[in-house]
Amino acid sequence: MKPDTIGARVRYWRMRRGGMTQAVLAGLAGVSQSYISQVESGRKTIDRRSTLVTIAAALQVTVADLLGQGTEPGDPARDSAAEHVPAIWSALIEIEDGERRQPGRAREQLATDIARSDRLRMSCNYPAMARMLPALLLDAAAVGGPVLVQVAYQASTCLRHLGYRHLALNAARIAVLAAEDIEDPAWIGASRFAYAQSLPIESAPIAARSADRSLSELQADAADDRVRQMLGQLHLSAALTSTVSGRADVAGDHLAEAAREAASLGDPSDGAGFNGCGFGPTNVGLWAMSIAAEQGESGRVIELSRKVRPHVLVASIRQQSYWLDLGRALADGGRRDAEALASFVQAERAAPVPFVLNPLARDAVVALVQRAKRRAVPDELRALAGRMGIRLAS
User: Fold this and answer.
1) Which of 28, 127, 193, 273 has its CA 20 to 30 A from that of 213?
2) Rounded CA gap, 278 and 263, in Å?
3) Are 331 and 367 in contact, with CB atoms under 8 Å apart?
4) How many domains does one find in the chain?
């Protein structure tokens, strides 16, 4: 088994802290010693973002350190994207410094390439996006306006899913400034949503406050359906980050507001909506599942899943979110591992790249493998683990 699970990193950092015992770490993080033991051995996953935050704080590291995001080679998808990240970073710095080159392609070709990049975003092909982004960002900056907003938003999404949150945040800031410059409230909402999404998990209270400010400022333009969609997305973002921050009552209010907005708008007829956000009742249901998972309510996740039909949305990341949350809920307790495996296979099929790169997905599959050792690892689980680069003990 490759020593690159969250549990292995918890143990690594615990030993780096002067040989801190599991009991001491458990006390600092507010969990049991047996929980830490099971996490480190891979028999149990960390299912809540808030728990990741408390364990990281106890170990004096970041959540990104525990997740290994953007730092660990070995996965072909990550490695193929990583070689383009320095050029993306350089382009972001150049744009932030105010430098503007002559565009390297005609406007028509630029529009075609932006549309292609967006299709790659919707299909979660982030390595292919990463190859396009350095030149695309610079050409978009030369044109400015909504073109720069859209490409910077795409860059933020791509970088975040590849694990480079610090660069995703830079791209989101560029998108926010460009949107505010053109005074387009829908793009302002979209870019601020990207900003909130790019903040590290530890900054959940900041992300919630940022969403609250945006909601207040954009309310005056709610006659525009594009703005209403982004108001709904911001309510969903605030609901999740408030849950992570331990403010369940506030989270409930935001989720209720999003549900009301979605009920009046309906699901987007094209399955995408403004900027591919897919806001509507289906998306609200998906976020409700994620919020229930963060609250540790696996039964509630399974119950909600029966009412959600993710296939009505174009973005494959939405479908992956459904199957991943459902699989993790089914795996909780170890009594429905066969159903959990079937869900994880569906999640991988929906969006292979982000599934393989997701450390929570990886840990969930490792836990299934560990529990199956007493019997035999099913062929389908063995195959899934192999595709994720998880070595099985012989």
Assistant:
1) 273
2) 13
3) yes
4) 2
Q: What is the amino acid identity at position 132?
A: M
Cα separation of 177 and 184, whole Å? 11
Instruction: Return the closest-CA partner of residue 35 out of 18, 19, 52.
Output: 52
d(CA 244, CA 3): 28
How is 103-125 classified by DSSP, letter by letter?
A: PSS-HHHHHHHHHHHHHHHHTT-
Segment 102-133, tens digit of pLDDT: 888 999 999 999 999 999 999 999 999 999 99
Q: Which two tokens stand for residue 203?
A: 């900054």
- Rounded to whole angstroms, how far apart are CA atoms 31 and 225? 45
Amino acid at 260: R
Q: Domain range for residue 167?
A: 74-183
Best CA proximity match to 204, nearest among 363, 326, 45, 57: 57
Q: What is the pLDDT of residues 212-252, one digit of tens each?
A: 899 999 999 989 999 999 999 999 999 999 999 999 999 99
Task: Answer for the pair 368, 334: CB distance below 8 angstroms, yes or no.
Answer: no
**DSSP for 215-247?**
HHHHGGGTTSHHHHHHHHHHHHHHHHHHHHTT-
**Helices 33-41/6-16 angle, 10° precision:** 120
- Cα separation of 82 and 222, whole Å? 40
Instruction: Find out whether 59 and 13 touch, Cβ atoms under 8 Å.
Output: yes
Report if residue 116 sits inside a domain: yes
Between helices 204-218 and 185-198, what is the axis angle to 10°? 170
pTM attached to this predicted model: 0.90
DSSP-derived secondary structure letter, 45: -
In a domain, residue 19? The reply is yes
